[in-house]
Amino acid sequence: MQPNQPKKFSLRENVRLRLLKDMLSGLKQSFPNVPNFLMVVDTMTTRIISSCSKMIELLEEGVVAIERLDLVRKPFPNMHAIYFVSPTEESVDNIIKDFDNAKNPQYGNIHLFFTNRVDNHLVEKLSKKKTLIDRVLTFKEINLDFLCPEENIFHFDMPEALPIVFSRQGDPQERQLEERIAYKLATVVPTLFDYDKFQIIYNKNAHNGVAERVARIVEERIERFRELRKSDDDDEPPAPVKIIILDRSFDPLTPILHDYYYRSLVYDLLDVKNDIVEYPSEDNTGKVTMKKAILNESDDLWMKYKYKHIAESMTKISEEFNQFVQNNKTAAIQRGDTSDLDLKTMGEIVKKMPMYKELMAKYTLHMSLIESCLKVFTQRDLKELGEIEQCLATGTDNTGQAVKNPKLIAMIAQRMAHGKMDDKEKLRLMMIASISLDLNEKDRKSLIQSLPDNDKATLNKLFWLGIDPTKVSSSKGKASDKSAQISANAKNKLKNISFDLCRYTPPLEGIAKSVADNKIDKEQFGTINIPKTYDGSIGQRSKITAGSASLRKGASKNTNWNENMDERNQPKFIFFVIGGLSYAEIRVLHEFENSNAYLNVISGSTAIVKPQDFIDGISQMLTQSEYDQLKQKI
Prior knowledge:
Largest sheet: 7 strands, mixed
Distance between the termini: 55 Å
Radius of gyration: 27 Å
Strand order of the largest sheet: 6-7-16-14-9-8-13
Shape: globular
Helix content: 40-55%
Number of strands: 17
Number of helices: 25
C-alpha cells in the first residue's frame, strides 16, 4: 500500500479480532483466575478459525488445545472448555452427550459460544440437561457465521442453495434454508464494527421473491444489532453500508461462460479443490513429479496476477522470471557462474539459498499452471469456442460488428459437431445459447439432438432461472438482438483492451456502478432504508467519526469521502448473490473497488462456484413435473 493511500477495510481481519479479542480476551478478563482453556469446535467453526488465525495467537489468549466436537476426546473434568459451535441440532446433541455421565464429565466448567441465533427448542434442550447446565458459566451468540477465505470475500459453502431455493419454492425445506441464508448474511454486520445507516437493495423477481424475503429478515436482524449498539457515543454516525442482495436469476450467463483471466481459467480448466492444485514439476535430472500448492494470499505472484488476463499473466510472469534469473547472484551460483564472486559474497548468497529456492518454486508453479491451461486451451480449441461464446453473450464479433441469429446458430451447429467436444462441453454451450438466443423449435431440436437425455432435462431446468429454452421470447435475457448497452460495452472493450475473448462485461459491474451513483432502476430493484429517514446517498460529510468502540481507531474530522480516511469510516458495499458467485464476478467487483478508492467492496454468496459447479447445481433442480408433485404435498 502506498503511503498516501487510505487503509483498506479487511473483513477477515475483523473476523480475527472478533475471535481473539471479543471472544477470547473478553473471556480471560471475565475469568482472570483461569490460566488455560480447551476449545471445542465443529466442522464449520474449524474452518472459520483456520481461515483467519494461527495457533500461536490462540495460545496467547490461553487456548492450549483445539478439539473436534464430533470426535472421541479424552476427558478433562477439571478444565474450562470453550465450545465454539454452530447452533445446530447435531452440535447441541454432541454437547449434551459430553455430560451424560455425571460422575465423569468431559470437562469442568464450560463457556458456550454459538455462531448464530440459537433456536428456542435448542436452548430448552440444553437447559433440561442439569449435569450440563450447572457447569455453564458463559452463553453467548457471537454472530459470526460465515467463511472468509480472502480479505473481503465471504461465503457459506452452501452449494445446495441453488437447486433448493429455485426449484423447491414454498417447500418447508426451502423456507428454512432461506432463513438460514438470511441469518448467516446478517452476521456480517457486527463484523463491520462501525455501522448505523444501511440501505438494503434486492432484485425484484416476479417468479421467485427470495431476494426480498432474505432482505426483510436481514432488516430485522440489523435493527436488533443497532438497538444493541445504541449505548455507543459517536460524535457522528459512521459511514453508510449498502447490502445488495441478488438471486442468481439476475444473470445466469456469467457463471457458465469461459472467463480468460488467470484465476478464472485455472479454476475452470484445472482440477483445483479447496484452493489446492496439483502441477507437474521437473527436477535437475529431468524426472517429473506431481506437487501440490495452495493458491492463496501467501503467494505474492498469485495475488499480483490472478485478476489479469491469461495472456498478460503469461508474458509478465515470464519477464519477471527471466529478470530474476539474470539479476540474482544466487542464480549465478546455480548456473555455475562464480567468476565475479568473492568468498564473502558467496557465503552471503548461500545463506539466502532457501529464499531463492522458494522464489524459484513460485515461478515454476505459475509457469506450470499457465502451461497446463494453455495445453487444455489448445486441446479443446477454446479460442474458437470462446469466440462463439463472446458473440452469443454480446451480439458482436471481434471486429465490433453485430452478429445475427442465423450466423450464430450455424456457428453453434458446427461446433456441436466438433469431435473434440464432450457431453459436458456441449451442454455448457447449449446453456449459453439458450440464455443468449431466441431459438425456434426446429433449430433447438437440431442443436440438442446429440445431447444425452439427462442433459436435455438439465437444459430445460434453466426455466427456474427465468430462461425457458423451449419457448421463443419467453423470458428476460433472451433476445435476437443484444441490448444497446451490452453491445456498447463490448465495442468499448475492443477499443481499449488488446486481449482476445474478453469483450463481455458481467452485469454485476453495471449494477455496482448504479448503486455507487444511487441511480438504481426502481423497476428492477427494491430498497429498504435503515433508518427509514436515510435517503441512500453516500455523499460528502462534514466530519468523520472519531471512534467509539475499543477496536476502532479515530479518524480526522472535516474529511470528505474521497480523501484519506480511516478505513472503518469509508462507505461499504456488500454484494451478496443467492445461488453462487463466479470468479469473473469477484474480479469485476475487485476492479470496481480499485476504481473507487473511497469505497470498500465486500463480495459474498451462498457459495463461490466454478462453471461446472453451477451446471451441477442446475442439474440437481427438480423437473417441472417433480415440482408439481411436490406442490400437492405442501
